[in-house]
């Protein structure tokens, strides 16, 4: 677990350095994700390697990590209240359009190589 | 307020523990309701902790300080998204072009629709600029908002809300649109609801989680490039 975390933090650090050096407009951890992917492809560790186990422990709780930022919405609720209709409709509308475009486009364009395995995960009422 | 209550409220660990407990309650609720879409642990915890913060009149900056440990873990967790992606790497074969086209189109539509709808509904320029990058992960949306002349705290709130929307309603909407390819489903949610949506997809299905994380990263990159161009064009 500690070794896995060290790998993750080292990749994040390398990512931050790449961002600093190149000015590429993404966060350091996202570059770190790409770097770790490269490491995984090159080294091809077994599925129970420290990095795998740390990721499998951390990622199911990804939602937890956004709670403090989310509580910030409450703190800034005042700015959201300025123009509630425009805020709500534009937010939900543009979110829906974006979701639909990516989902439908990727689904149709990927039909040749599509994977619809394991039943149960697809569909579902809102 | 009396001294004993103050002593409890002054404990630096208090809000860390309260946040973890609220999230735990969210997990319990998700299980008890058979994964009802509204029972997203992130939503339950934000509502509960947010209510407490308001009721007890706690300063948000000090709450954020006390829970910095949780927020810190976002960095390594984002890096860790490479692991599910690595496991699904074979599913990228023959899908790279469809994937890139969909994500780029999605980023353009997200920004253009946000700006267009705000204008259509009579919202001001500041709101349009603040909403334009809301589909990307928070550090990027805040940085892009700043470049565009938006209001970063407003953008942060909109970004988190878009994320929660994806965790709650993303899979359901995709079901209605008959999007069944797990890769496409993951890409769609990651494109518009970043890490929070990815948090749901990872729990739902390994392929969806992997592609959601990938879409989150790509959308961040594409949006930071196209948002300034689109906003200059539309405003």
Automatic annotation (TrEMBL), chain A:
<keyword id="KW-1003">Cell membrane</keyword>
<protein>
    <submittedName>
        <fullName>CidA/LrgA family protein</fullName>
    </submittedName>
</protein>
<dbReference type="Pfam" id="PF03788">
    <property type="entry name" value="LrgA"/>
</dbReference>
<feature type="transmembrane region" description="Helical">
    <location>
        <begin position="62"/>
        <end position="79"/>
    </location>
</feature>
<keyword id="KW-1133">Transmembrane helix</keyword>
<keyword id="KW-0812">Transmembrane</keyword>
<dbReference type="InterPro" id="IPR005538">
    <property type="entry name" value="LrgA/CidA"/>
</dbReference>
<keyword id="KW-0472">Membrane</keyword>
<feature type="transmembrane region" description="Helical">
    <location>
        <begin position="85"/>
        <end position="106"/>
    </location>
</feature>
<feature type="transmembrane region" description="Helical">
    <location>
        <begin position="24"/>
        <end position="42"/>
    </location>
</feature>
From TrEMBL, chain B:
<dbReference type="Pfam" id="PF04172">
    <property type="entry name" value="LrgB"/>
</dbReference>
<feature type="transmembrane region" description="Helical">
    <location>
        <begin position="41"/>
        <end position="61"/>
    </location>
</feature>
<feature type="transmembrane region" description="Helical">
    <location>
        <begin position="67"/>
        <end position="85"/>
    </location>
</feature>
<feature type="transmembrane region" description="Helical">
    <location>
        <begin position="97"/>
        <end position="121"/>
    </location>
</feature>
<keyword id="KW-0812">Transmembrane</keyword>
<feature type="transmembrane region" description="Helical">
    <location>
        <begin position="209"/>
        <end position="234"/>
    </location>
</feature>
<protein>
    <submittedName>
        <fullName>LrgB family protein</fullName>
    </submittedName>
</protein>
<feature type="transmembrane region" description="Helical">
    <location>
        <begin position="154"/>
        <end position="177"/>
    </location>
</feature>
<feature type="transmembrane region" description="Helical">
    <location>
        <begin position="12"/>
        <end position="29"/>
    </location>
</feature>
<keyword id="KW-0472">Membrane</keyword>
<dbReference type="InterPro" id="IPR007300">
    <property type="entry name" value="CidB/LrgB"/>
</dbReference>
<keyword id="KW-1133">Transmembrane helix</keyword>
């Amino acid at each position: 677990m500690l070794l896995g975390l060290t790998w993750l933090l080292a990749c994040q650090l390398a990512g931050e350095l790449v961002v600093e050096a190149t000015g590429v407009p993404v966060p350091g951890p996202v570059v770190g994700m790409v770097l770790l992917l490269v490491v995984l492809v090159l080294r091809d560790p077994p599925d129970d390697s420290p990095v795998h186990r740390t990721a499998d422990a951390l990622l199911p709780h990804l939602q937890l990590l956004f709670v403090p930022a989310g509580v910030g919405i409450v703190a800034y609720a005042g700015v959201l209240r300025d123009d509630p209709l425009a805020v709500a409709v534009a937010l939900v509308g543009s979110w829906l359009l974006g979701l639909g475009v990516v989902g439908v486009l990727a689904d149709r364009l990927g039909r040749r190589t599509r994977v619809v395995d394991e039943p149960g995960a697809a569909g579902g009422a809102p | 307020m009396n001294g004993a209550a103050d002593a409890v409220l002054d404990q630096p660990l208090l809000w860390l523990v309260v946040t973890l407990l609220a999230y735990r309650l969210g997990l319990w609720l998700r299980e008890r309701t058979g994964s009802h879409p509204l029972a997203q642990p992130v939503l339950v915890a934000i509502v509960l902790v947010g209510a407490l913060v308001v009721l007890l009149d706690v300063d948000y900056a000090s709450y954020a300080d006390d829970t910095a440990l949780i927020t810190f873990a976002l960095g390594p967790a984002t890096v860790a998204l490479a692991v599910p992606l690595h496991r699904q790497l074979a599913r990228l074969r023959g899908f790279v072009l469809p994937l890139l086209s969909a994500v780029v189109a999605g980023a353009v539509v997200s920004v253009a629709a946000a700006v267009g709808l705000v204008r259509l509904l009579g919202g001001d320029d500041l709101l349009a600029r603040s909403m334009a990058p809301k589909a990307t992960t928070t550090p990027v949306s805040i940085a892009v908002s700043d470049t565009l002349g938006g209001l970063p705290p407003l953008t942060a709130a909109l970004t988190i809300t878009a994320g929660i929307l994806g965790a709650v309603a993303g899979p359901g909407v995709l079901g209605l649109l008959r999007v069944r390819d797990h890769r496409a489903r993951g890409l769609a949610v990651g494109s518009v609801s970043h890490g929070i949506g990815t948090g749901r997809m990872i729990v739902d299905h390994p392929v969806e989680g992997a592609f959601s994380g990938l879409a989150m990263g790509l959308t961040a990159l594409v949006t930071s490039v196209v948002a300034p161009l689109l906003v200059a064009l539309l405003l």
